[in-house]
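Journal club prep — side note

Before the paper discussion, L.F. wants everyone to see what a predicted structure for a comparable chain looks like in C-alpha cell form. Sequence:
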Amino acid sequence: MEPMISIIVPAYNIEQYLSRCLDSILSQTYKNIEIIVVNDGSSDKTGEVIDQYSKNYPEKIIGIHKKNDGVTKARIDGINASHGSWIGFVDGDDKIGPDMFARLIKNALEYDAD
C-alpha cells in the first residue's frame, strides 16, 4: 500500500484563491492523501469555502477553524491533526501541478529521504 501524505494548507483571508488551490490538490495523480485546511481566523469567506469542500469531500478534506495565530502555528495545528506518514505543505493561494506529490513521494522512497 502506498504511504499516506497529509497535505497541510494554512488559510487566512484567501477566499478568492482557495478553491483553485484545493482543486489542484484534489487532482493529484497520487491518491493516498488527506488535505488538512487550517482557517487561521479569517474575516472573509475562507471558512465557508473550507466547510463546503469538507462537506463535498469528507473522505479527503479536514477543515480546522481557529483564532489567528499566524502561519507557523496553523501548520503545527495541521500536523497535529494529520494521519499520514508523510507531511506536505501547500499555501492556500498556490496552485500545484497534478503530479507534484507523486514525484515527491517517488523520490523520497527511492532515495530513502527523511
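L.F.'s comment for the group: Helices lie at 15-26, 46-56, 71-81, 100-110. Keep this in mind when we get to the figures.
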